[in-house]
Amino acid sequence: MYNQNTGRRTMVLGCSLFFLLQCCIGIVPAFASTKTLAIGINNMNAAKNAQQIVNQRKQCFDNSWRFKLADPKDAQQTTYNDADWRTLSLPHDWSIEGEFNIQEPMGNDGGYLPAGIGWYRKAVLIPSSLIGKKMNLYFEGVYCNAEVYINGQLAGKHAYGFTSFTIDATPFVKEGRNIVAVRVDNSKQKNCRWYSGSGIYRHVWWQITNQLHFAQWGLGITTLSAKSNEEAVVRVEANVENEQNTKEDVLLKFVIKDPNGKKVLTQSYPLSIKAGEKKNVIQKCTVPSPKLWDLKTPVCYALETTLEKDGKVIDKQVQSFGIRTIEYSTNGLLLNGNPLKLNGGCVHHDNGSLGAAAYDRAEERRIELLKAAGFNAIRTSHNPPSEAFLNACDRIGMLVIDEAFDGWKAAKNTYDYSTIFDECAEKDLASFVERDRNHPSVFCWSIGNEVIERKSPEAVEIAHRLAAVCHRIDPTRPVTSAMTTWDSDWSIFDPLMAEHDICGYNYQLHRAADDHKRIPSRVIIQTESYPREAFANWALVNDNSYILGDFVWTAIDYLGESGIGRYYYKGDTEGQHFERKQYPWHGAYCGDIDLLGWRKPISHYRAMLYETTDEKLYLAVKEPNGYYGEIKETMWSVWPTWESWTWPGHEGKPIEAEIFSRYPKVRLYLNNKLIKEQTTERKDEFKAIVTLPYEAGELKVVGVDSNGKEVESKTLYTAGKPTKLALKADRKCLKADGQDLAFITVELQDDKNILSANAENKLHFDVEGEGEIIATDNALLKDSTCYRSKERKAWKGKAMVIVKTTGKPGKIKVTVSTDGIKKGQSIMLTAK
Fold first, then answer.
1. 3-state secondary structure at position 512
2. What pLDDT score does 227 carry?
3. Are the C-beta atoms of 341 and 541 separated by less than 8 Å?
4. Alpha-carbon dihedral 583, 588, 589, 591, rounded to 10 degrees
5. Which of 52, 508, 671, 781 has its CA 20 to 30 A from that of 215?
6. How many Å is the Cα radius of gyration of the chain?
7. What does the pLDDT read at residue 589?
8. C-alpha angle 431-436-441 in degrees, rounded to nearest 5
9. What average pLDDT does this structure show over 702-720?
10. Distance, CA of 762 to CA of 821 (rounded, Å)
11. Whole-angstrom distance between the N-terminal and C-terminal Cα of the chain?
């Protein structure tokens, strides 16, 4: 809305977290061949070998699926024999399980991994007490072209692989045993410009309601005003559907609870709804002395919304939501009235060695890594993220540009979204906004990215139409899209940018000053930028209030778009751009963070520029040109720089120390001898490059304050040969739900516990107890070892193993060993 007093567009909204129930309720071990199952709800064998649905609104439907990577005839039929199919639990991505091969149809874009067609089947038992209820299957994400069958009948289709969708199961289910079958077709390549994954890669839920119920994504929460010491006015919207044949008079009740579970508000409203009617109810609620959601204290409340008749609950939904305000204008961005500059990063949806599989813990860990690296905003390029991803942003405190599409009607790839745009775009966009509109983390909608037709009048019309969909469902947030051109006539985009509330610039922030003179009312965000231009972009953001922030491409390494950000050595296959085949590169090495979660030097520099962490001093060493070969950089790369002072064979030769500092000066010492004192002020871009002859030992940098006092130091040591393994788990106590993960980093160290940064030992991984190894990694995106392998070479002295719980409580022992080191190393975890 527009604030007449300040002249600012203002957003105030709450959040919707679809509370995930503990996976998985009522789920039992894998079922045998569906052909051999006896029919009948009371049959003992059937009850043991299928999920029993209970009278609960939302139940996890992830476990005990049968899967086959093939397209067998009649696989949807209840009599089909799936005895030889694999049993697995969701989320599942079959592509990441495959071998890397330059001949694979997904090619450079998809990381040279397999695609194809796969089938999933699952048996479910419906008791007679549920017949007559409304029953839905809710899929958070299937890539792609999903066909859902229930008892052999086609219940529904969904083409777009990144949006959630609901299948009405009510007309197809019966009492007793039912078969759900899902055909997933990712065979048409190419359909995506990055790694998409294949399969049912996000959660599935079985939903049960009465015929009078809240609509899917039917609750909207918006904060109209908020002051932490006074009150907040919250607008609640409830969409109610009556699918009965009779009129109903019910009571609609809202209960708001604070973060401690204490009721702070209860309001009830009588509601009369006709047969077949859909009714939208809007009410205002006042929350006293609210605790506001922000990046440092991401406080969330709970909203319980019920429909009651004669004192009995007909339907109930519980959502988490946050209270916060955002204002944006050419004067800048305000969060709860406080100025904020966005240190943003773009992220694709994959979880590295896990592929597209959206495990809750993997999604949460990504946000933890990004937050620790100093990012305060994320752009979900170029598709809707998982619910777990946004839930983590809400809990941890991260702002999000939520993006719907990569392209519109004009094709970037032969089989991409352009093939279904006319049919699906507005429907997909509406469901995307309805699903995500209540997350406090989401502050902006993006309707596209570098669309091919961006210079045509048709693009203006499409942008107008898509923006209208967003504003109709959610009038509180701005709309943007990302635009770029390397042509001289940038002003050709003025009509298109006028259809947006905030204008997204990809790699074009240097045009902002001229644009501001031409169109002073334009609000700008750089939606993509090159990592190497961190300082120049920070300076533009810092010095110009009409530029809200910068989003680097990318925040974290990702699969697909193989070779982006790579550096290479003379003699390697060079290629001119990432469209060229770069095999065995199977991912993009342009992230501030690599696939192990290690922060590259550029990450520390960016965080210091924006002062979004407590870091003020950092030391690394630029790989000497010629040490492995003459180094070549690419468009999205930065010079390879490592936290290492171990360069054998380079003694006496020049080497460069790279120092980032928020102190006025730094001093560099080699083996306690002062090498150089240098200023690191803004005129120096807050960094110093010091050339010195390499000599093994200790390299130390010291930050010097304005009084000349040495106040902080960072040190690198020369490492000896690796003599031991060091294991560290991100968490040692896991949930025994068959979903929780432990990420265990492995380091090769010398006798003094110093990382042997040149070590490339082959590691062997083993697990005992109630855990299983689901991936190994070393962050080297040209290592063609399958991510499911239990053997992997270290890279730069590091590797990682990811362990998933089995679903049973107990101990988990993970052991790593390597040739050349006599004793392996183990770490103990507990699943509860």
1. helix
2. 87
3. yes
4. -170
5. 52
6. 28
7. 97
8. 160
9. 97
10. 11
11. 48
Residues 6+ apart with CB under 8 A from 411: 418, 419, 452
Q: Which of 665, 556, 655, 657 is nearest to 616 (CA)?
A: 665
More confident residue, 562 or 16: 562
What is the mean pLDDT of the segment spanning 242-268? 95
Beta strands in 362-478 (DSSP E): 377-380, 399-403, 442-449
Q: Report whether 640 contacts 580 (CB < 8 A).
A: no
To the question of pTM greater than 0.90 for the whole model, the response is yes
Residue 229 Rama label (left phi>0; alpha psi -120 to 50; beta): alpha
Kindly state the DSSP code that residue 363 receives in the 8-state scheme: H
Residue closest to 390 by CA, chosen among 366, 406, 407, 372: 366
Q: For residue 506, give the amino acid letter.
A: N
Residues present in the chain in total? 832
The residue to which tokens 């739900």 are assigned = 737
Average pLDDT value over all residues in the chain: 92
Helical (H) or strand (E) element with 436: helix 421-436
On the CB side of 454, CA atoms within 13 Å amount to 25
- Rounded to whole angstroms, the Cα distance separating 754 from 241 reads 63
pLDDT for 488? 81
The predicted structure's pLDDT at residue 37: 31
Over range 268-292, report the average pLDDT.
94
pLDDT band (50, 70, 90) for residue 576: very low
CA–CA separation, 349 and 535 (whole Å): 27
In DSSP terms, 143 is beta-bridged to: 199
